[in-house]
Design goal:
The complex is a heterotrimer of chains A (242), B (146) and C (45). Chain A is mainly α and 242 residues long. In chain A, 68% of the residues lie in helices and 0% in strands. Chain B is elongated. Chain B has a domain at 57-145. Chain B has four helices and no strands. Chain C is built from one helix and no strands. Chain C has one helix at 7-40. The longest helix of chain C is centred in the middle third of the chain and has 34 residues, at 7-40. Chain C is rod-shaped, with a radius of gyration of 18 Å. Classes of the chains: A mainly alpha (242), B mainly alpha (146), C mainly alpha (45). Chains in contact: A-B, A-C, B-C. At the A-B interface, helix 2, helix 3, helix 4, helix 7 and helix 9 of A face helix 2 and helix 3 of B.
């Protein structure tokens, strides 16, 4: 990991000029251990949150990982910046939840759980998932245009985003670059998807418990790419190694 | 973008995380806050969705299969529509006709922009639907038996 | 925050703010449009 050396920082990193090399290696070693420890909690937390239903277990675990990350930073360790951690994991989480959700609609639409909970959600917020469910030859939602977005996202954008997110968390230059690319893809997705549901608004919102409001209240939290883009464009690129 | 820091700036820089230059420090601070809000929002709504939906649509009074069944009756506007469990192997997505094939009871107005004409399902309305239907069928059966 | 912004940083910041305003403006307008329709077309009934 190539970091701009934090001289001063919190002033707690001891570097004896005469034995500078040894202290530096030790510092690197300690930093790696601290980072790995934080990542264990972060990954576990994200994995639970990715299942959606076990989110309540995942969040405290993730927050502990974040706390460890912050503590390592304050102790003067050369660890990943908090923002990189947050954005990296959240983008991966976002892509994961969507992939699982739409993956189920694509491939598990004949299951009882799908036929109950997807259509239940459909009746609450998005009638496109209730009306004519499983009427297509591949099943799942019959909402016009929906399958196109599902395939493009699950098989192109989200895998790319997850790969870029992981490399970003590893402080790789290509991770940073490709996360920019895939977050901009997110802009395209949001625009296209929202216009599509507006075109077919009757079929998407009529017959729902909370028309319009239900969908937006649920989906607004998936704007993570929009929040990542400004950071990705203004972060000092040199903290990312080739 | 390399940082050109003066002695005065290095005081402020010490508090800045790596990668964040003073020019964008405030932007990054607010982005971090919004991202954390999104994280909490995602997790909380995700965790609540399944239980709330389950209770709204009749669980645990109705089993999952019964809920699925009631959904079918509402969706196709047909009291005889059933939720086959387990799902037949010759139905979508494994091939075979879609769920709507041969059904003429739905209230959909077809056109370039279809209208479903479905009514929203109220709180535990599926339970009431089932009970009313069973009461009706029992009454009919008794009347028929006489 | 305290350091003077060079031109590139200033332009970058402005462009990013424009992006945020545009994208959230778009989302908001779609939301308002759908909300208006919801009342006009009777989805709440």
């Amino acid at each position: 990991m190539a970091f701009t050396d934090k001289t001063g920082g919190s002033g707690r990193v001891m570097t004896n000029p005469t034995s500078g090399g040894l202290s530096y290696d030790q510092h690197e070693e300690d930093s790696k251990i601290a980072q790995r420890q934080a990542d264990k909690w972060l990954i576990t937390g994200t994995a639970f949150m990715g299942t959606l239903v076990f989110g309540f277990i995942g969040l405290p675990i993730f927050l502990r990982g974040l706390y460890l990350q912050r503590k390592a930073t304050q102790d003067g360790m050369s660890v990943r910046p908090i923002m990189v951690t947050l954005i990296g994991y959240l983008v991966i989480l976002d892509a994961f939840i969507n992939s699982i959700g739409w993956g189920l609609d694509l491939m598990a639409n004949h299951s009882l759980l799908n036929r109950v909970f997807f259509t239940a959600w459909g009746n609450y917020a998005d009638n496109g998932y209730f009306w004519e469910y499983n009427s297509l030859f591949i099943g799942g939602t019959s909402a016009p245009g929906e399958k196109g977005w599902e395939i493009a996202c699950i098989f192109v954008v989200f895998p790319m985003r997850i790969a870029a997110g992981i490399a970003f968390l590893q402080m790789k230059r290509w991770g940073h670059q490709w996360l920019i690319v895939t977050c901009w893809m997110g802009v395209v997705i949001w625009v296209g998807y929202v216009v599509n549901i507006t075109m077919y608004a009757d079929i998407r919102f009529d017959g729902t418990i909370l028309p319009v409001v239900g969908w937006w209240a649920f989906d607004i939290f998936y704007i993570t790419p929009f929040l990542a883009i400004p950071y990705l464009h203004t972060v000092n690129r040199e903290i990312f190694a080739d | 973008m390399s940082k050109n820091t003066t002695a005065a700036d290095s005081e402020v820089d010490q508090e800045l995380p790596p990668g964040t230059t003073p020019a964008f420090a405030r932007m990054h601070k607010w982005l971090k806050r919004f991202i954390i809000v999104c994280l909490f929002g995602l997790v909380i709504e995700g965790a609540f969705t399944v239980p709330v939906l389950a209770v709204w649509y009749g669980a645990p009074t109705l089993s999952l299969t019964e809920i699925c069944d009631e959904f079918m009756k509402v969706r196709w506007n047909d009291e005889k529509a059933e939720c086959k469990y387990p799902h037949p192997i010759d139905g979508p997505p494994f091939g075979g006709p879609g769920e709507g094939t041969g059904r003429t009871t739905a209230k959909t107005e077809w056109g370039v922009q279809p209208k479903s004409n479905l009514d929203r399902i109220g709180f535990r309305e599926l339970v009431r639907n089932k009970e009313e239907r069973e009461a009706r069928e029992k009454a009919k059966a008794q009347a028929g038996a006489k | 925050m305290n350091a003077p912004l060079n031109k590139q940083d200033r332009d970058r910041k402005r462009a990013l703010i424009v992006l945020q305003l545009t994208i959230y403006g778009f989302l908001l307008s779609m939301f308002i449009l759908q909300l208006v329709w919801s009342f006009q077309r009777g989805w709440w009934n």
